[in-house]
Structure formats: C-alpha cells, structure tokens
Amino acid sequence: MFKNILVPTDGSELSESTVARAITFAKEAGARVTFFYAQPDFPMPIYGEGALIDPTTPEQFSRAAQAEAERILSKAREAAALAEVTSSGDTVVSEVPYEAIIESAERNACDLIFMASHGRRGLSGFLLGSETQKVLTHSKIPVLVYR
C-alpha cells in the first residue's frame, strides 16, 4: 500500500518513539522510510536596550545545525537498518517546519507522512501539535498521526 513514508523528527524523546513506531509500521507495510529534519534558520539578532549579543556567526550556526541534523538522521537511519528497513535522510533549513515537511514529502515522492501528535493529554489532547495540525491542514499527501 505505502512505498515511501516520510517521518519528520527533531531528536526529542517523543520523536524517537515515533521513529521507532514508524520503522515497525514501514516494515509491516514493506515500505521504505525517509527521515526528515527541519534545520532552524539563523535567528536575526535584535539589538536594543538590554539586548544580549550572540557571538555566534551565521556560518557557525549553520555548521552546528547541519551537525545536529546529521546526528539525528543518522540515529534514525541506524534504527531502521537494525530493523532491516531501507531508509534515507533529508534536511533543509526552514523557518516554517510544516512547509518544509510537506515539501520534503513531495520532493522524495512519499505517499504517507507519519508524525507524532506531540503527546498532549486531557483537553489539550483534542488539539494536535501546531506543526502536526498545519501539516494535516495543508498536505495533499495522507498523514498518519501517532499518539
């Protein structure tokens, strides 16, 4: 049914749980997995009274973000390899993660996006995480929300 599943990840504990479940799902479906990490863009400093100046240059920030992306995606790919599931990784710099997730799914010809609901409970459990909600609202590709 599904051939290539996009799994956005941010390296958090909840995200790692979602990665593990997505790998199991992909194995059962006979699908491959494309893991995706949206790198943050360099924050523009705001100067003014009482503002702190960050000595990090845009180049240093970019290198650190790329290294973090590689670490997170490598960990997910290793987990997939242990389960004998074919996988790849994708990352871009984006200020708007939900758009980057949808664009990655389209760019990688994914036919399902497998995302976490961000683990909210109670009344807030009715509302999904903001990025998940935005992907659900804007994606033309089916989205499976894992809780």
From TrEMBL:
<dbReference type="InterPro" id="IPR014729">
    <property type="entry name" value="Rossmann-like_a/b/a_fold"/>
</dbReference>
<comment type="similarity">
    <text>Belongs to the universal stress protein A family.</text>
</comment>
<dbReference type="Pfam" id="PF00582">
    <property type="entry name" value="Usp"/>
</dbReference>
<feature type="domain" description="UspA">
    <location>
        <begin position="1"/>
        <end position="147"/>
    </location>
</feature>
<dbReference type="InterPro" id="IPR006016">
    <property type="entry name" value="UspA"/>
</dbReference>
<protein>
    <submittedName>
        <fullName>Universal stress protein</fullName>
    </submittedName>
</protein>
<dbReference type="InterPro" id="IPR006015">
    <property type="entry name" value="Universal_stress_UspA"/>
</dbReference>
